[in-house]
Amino acid sequence: MTIIYESKTGFTEKYAKMLAKITGLKAYNIKDFNSVKKGSDVVFLGWISAGRVKGLKKALKNFNVKAVCASGTGRGPEPNSATFVKNNNIEGKEFFYLRGGNKPIREIKGFDKVILSMFLKMLKSKKDKTDDIIEAINNIESGVDYVKEENLAEVVKWVNKQIK
Ligand SMILES: Cc1cc2nc3c(=O)[nH]c(=O)nc-3n(C[C@H](O)[C@H](O)[C@H](O)COP(=O)(O)O)c2cc1C
Predict the structure, then answer these.
(1) CATH class of 2-101+146-163
(2) Could you tell me the distance, in angstroms and rounded to a whole number, from the CA of residue 22 to the centre of ligand 1?
(3) Domain layout of the chain by residue ranges
(4) CA dihedral defined by 36, 8, 160, 88, rounded to 10 degrees?
(5) Of 49, 112, 133, 137, which is best to mutate to test ligand 1, by the most ligand atoms within 8 angstroms of its C-beta?
(6) pLDDT of 30-80, one tens digit each?
(7) So what's the pLDDT on residue 164?
(8) CA-CA distance, 18 to 14, in Å (whole number)?
(9) Ligand 1: which residue has its CA nearest to atom 20?
(10) Which phi and psi (to 5°) does residue 24 adopt?
């Protein structure tokens, strides 16, 4: 079993490296996918952009993805776990949500900034702002880091069961 990850701003990478340290598995950025045997068992970690796990398609094409960990800044997978799993075509695989983090929007560039700006505008236009929405607006504007080892507890438990 190997850890493969895709990370744009480093939060998912932090989780991947933490998971590697705790479990003793090796972690590779998906850019280096050629270093890992094609078709072998992997745990994949990717960041979420507009509900889709980035890098997942490439991982599914090249490896036997046993588990998917999606890192996002929401409180959980949107709109719920079952729909998220279905939308990402990973039914039947182990799925974990990891709360990641984001840089302040002023530090984000290119197409990602366009998507995020649209999302921010939509959130700000809502009349009745719930706590989740206010939190999301603040996170996008100011940046946030939710990465901590205890968030990996369930993933670690699952990995250890697979490799023992
Ligand atoms: C363009 C864009 C779209 C995003 N869409 C979502 C989303 O749909 N759901 C979510 O929870 N987080 C979303 N995020 C937040 C990232 O998934 C989160 O910051 C992630 O932990 C970043 O990981 P990375 O540092 O490894 O790139 C989005 C971020 C960007 C820049």
Answers:
(1) alpha beta
(2) 24
(3) 2-101+146-163, 104-142
(4) -90
(5) 49
(6) 999 999 999 999 999 999 999 999 999 999 999 999 999 999 999 999 999
(7) 80
(8) 6
(9) 72
(10) 85, 0
Residue with tokens 């979420």: 48
- CB atoms under 10 Å from CB of 34, counted, come to 9
Give the DSSP per-residue string, 63-112.
SEEEEEEEEESSSSSSS-HHHHHHHTT-TTSEEEEEE-EE--GGG--HHH
pLDDT, one tens digit per residue, over 3-21 is 999 999 999 999 999 999 9
pTM: 0.96
Structural contact between residues 106 and 144, judged by C-beta atoms closer than 8 angstroms: no
Question: Which atom of ligand 1 sits closest to the CA of residue 115?
Answer: 1
**Nearest-CA residue for atom 16 of ligand 1:** 72
Q: Using a 6 Å cutoff on CB, does residue 151 contact ligand 1?
A: no
Q: Is the backbone peptide bond immediately before 79 cis, with ω within 30 degrees of 0?
A: yes
CA atoms of 141 and 46, how far apart (whole Å)? 22
Place of tokens 């709109």: 79
Pocket test for ligand 1, best of 9, 14, 29, 48 (most atoms within 8 A of CB): 48
49 half-sphere exposure, CB direction, 13 A CA radius: 15
